[in-house]
Design brief:
Elements lengths: L2 E7 L3 E7 L15 E6 L2 E6 L3 E7 L2 E3 L17 E7 L3 E7 L17 E6 L2 E6 L3 E7 L2 E3 L14 E4 L4
Antiparallel strand pairs: 1-2, 1-3, 3-6, 4-5, 7-8, 7-9, 9-12, 10-11, 10-13
InterPro entries: Beta/Gamma-Crystallin, Beta/gamma_crystallin, G_crystallin-like
Family: Belongs to the beta/gamma-crystallin family.
Keywords: Eye lens protein, Repeat
Length: 165
């Protein structure tokens, strides 16, 4: 069963809200979110209402403070394949990935990814190396321009597969 419990204060204190599905506005239930317990499934937390603002991806586990959901742990294995392009509309040089990349620049000459194809699995692009900074969830499909995955800039510093249970 997919479920997430959101708490107003750190260490699972204060008013809480049990959520079992999409919710475009949480202000009717809690004023802020400083800790979370994910009892099932993978969730995307958004900074603002109506699924806007920065995204934070959380999987099963407990996050006793907002700083703890800036990344997640790998849980299992499965088929994952991603193809990056250095130009919009799947043009220019490309690179195919099947594993996490802690530092994109090790295999990619520049930090910019202008378009991509998620061929298998789900992935998270991080703005900075070492899985830090703004996060963008990319599910299976084609992204002709970085704006299609919600990014204002094409900067990608690291990439991680979402490992499902």
């Amino acid at each position: 069963m997919e479920k997430i419990v959101l708490f107003e204060d750190q260490d699972f204190q204060g008013k809480s809200y049990d959520c079992k599905g999409d919710s475009a506005d949480l202000h009717g239930y809690i004023r802020r979110c400083n800790s979370v317990k994910v009892e099932g499934g993978w969730w995307v937390l958004y900074e603002r209402n109506n699924f806007t603002g920065y995204q934070y991806i959380v999987g099963p586990g407990e996050y006793n403070g907002y700083r703890h959901w800036m990344g997640f742990n790998d849980c299992a294995k499965g088929p994952y394949k991603l193809k990056l392009f250095d130009r919009p509309n799947f043009d220019g040089q490309s690179l195919e990935l099947t594993e996490n990349m802690k530092l994109v620049q090790e295999k990619w000459p520049r930090q910019e990814v202008q378009s991509c194809k998620v061929l298998e699995g789900s992935w998270v692009f991080y703005e900075h190396p070492n899985f830090c900074g703004r996060q963008y969830l990319l599910e299976k499909g084609e992204y002709r321009h970085h704006s299609e995955w919600g990014a204002l800039k094409a900067l990608v510093g690291s990439i991680k597969r979402i490992m499902e249970l």
